Amino acid sequence: MKTILVSGAILGFVVPKALAHGVDLHYEPQQVIRITARYDSGQPLAEARVQVFAPDRPQAAVISGTTNAQGEFQFVPDRPGQWQVQVRQAGHGGLLTIPVAPQGQTTTAAAIAVAPRVPATVSLRQYTPAQITVMVLAVLWGAIGTACFAWSRRRVQVE
Fold first, then answer.
1. Each residue of 2-55: pLDDT tens digit?
2. Helix (H, G, I), strand (E, B), or coil: what is residue 52?
3. Do 51 and 85 touch, CB atoms closer than 8 A?
4. I want to staple 80 with a disulfide (CB 3.0 to 4.6 A). Which of 18, 76, 102, 118 is the partner?
5. How far is CA 50 from CA 25, 65, 95, 127, in A?
6. Which residues, listed in sequence order, are joined to residue 65 by a DSSP beta bridge?
7. C-alpha to C-alpha distance for 39 and 71, rounded to whole angstroms
8. Nearest alpha-carbon partner for 38 in 90, 93, 86
């Protein structure tokens, strides 16, 4: 019994310093912006490309990434102002303006603008010149092919 007490006392004095690890925890409250992107049907816009533009740098994205499987993306704005967030996937998406208040002030969810809906009409402005060229060439190729087919059928009847 004495041996156990002596061993315990020795371990109690020696081991805790050898096995002890201090943990230093800090926290810093930050305003996290969470974006959820969904189609009109409610299906999430998974793996959509997201670009975040800072208020003082609207030409270049300061944060880029993709949405998760639920169509969600988060970022922490580091300065107040009007942040622009663009979400795109296969011709679908929108632009969202998020007002970020100076630190210490809160921005309510109601103040956050809603992303504009994707227009139901198709406009040529949403396509690149290369895409428009391919579409025009495909229509011409189809028209020429149809005309050649009709002309060849006509020749067969004459013979």
1. 666 666 555 555 555 556 678 888 887 778 899 999 888 889 999 999 999 999
2. strand
3. yes
4. 102
5. 32, 5, 10, 19
6. 50
7. 10
8. 93
